[in-house]
Amino acid sequence: MENVASLDITANGRIQVYTQYSRLYFYPSPHLTPEFVELSNIFIQKHRELKKQGRISSVLNPEYETRLLEGIKHWDGKTWK
């Protein structure tokens, strides 16, 4: 389970959610549905280390980011999605 480390409003008025453990930045839409993710340098470095050690085989690409977004549970006003 992931925790939110910080929740901020960016200079352009977007909500930015920074996660405590994975060190990812998530940006929800105005309706608070997951819209896009930004990989932090810490996340990218850790991914490289784990890949070099042979502990993971994933590739950081747009499909990876899509899967991250799809894994976020959010409330749509009626149900968790």
Report on the structure:
The protein has helices spanning about 40-50, 60-70; strands at about 5-10, 15-20, 25-30, 35-40. The chain is an alpha+beta fold and about 80 residues long. It has one domain (about 5-70). Strands 1-2-3-4 form a four-stranded antiparallel sheet. The longest helix is centred in the middle third of the chain and has 12 residues, at about 40-50.
Enumerate the strands of the largest sheet in spatial order, edge to edge or round the barrel: 1-2-3-4
Strand content: 25-35%
DSSP helix count?
2
What is the rounded distance between the termini? 16 Å
- The helicity comes to 25-40%
Task: Give the C-alpha Rg.
Answer: 14 Å
Question: What is the total number of structural domains?
Answer: 1
What's the story with the biggest beta sheet? Answer: 4 strands, antiparallel
Low-confidence stretches: none
Shape, please?
globular
Order of helices and strands: EEEEHH
List the quaternary state of the chains: single chain
Helix and strand composition category: alpha+beta
The overall pLDDT, averaged over residues, is 92
The overall strand count is 4
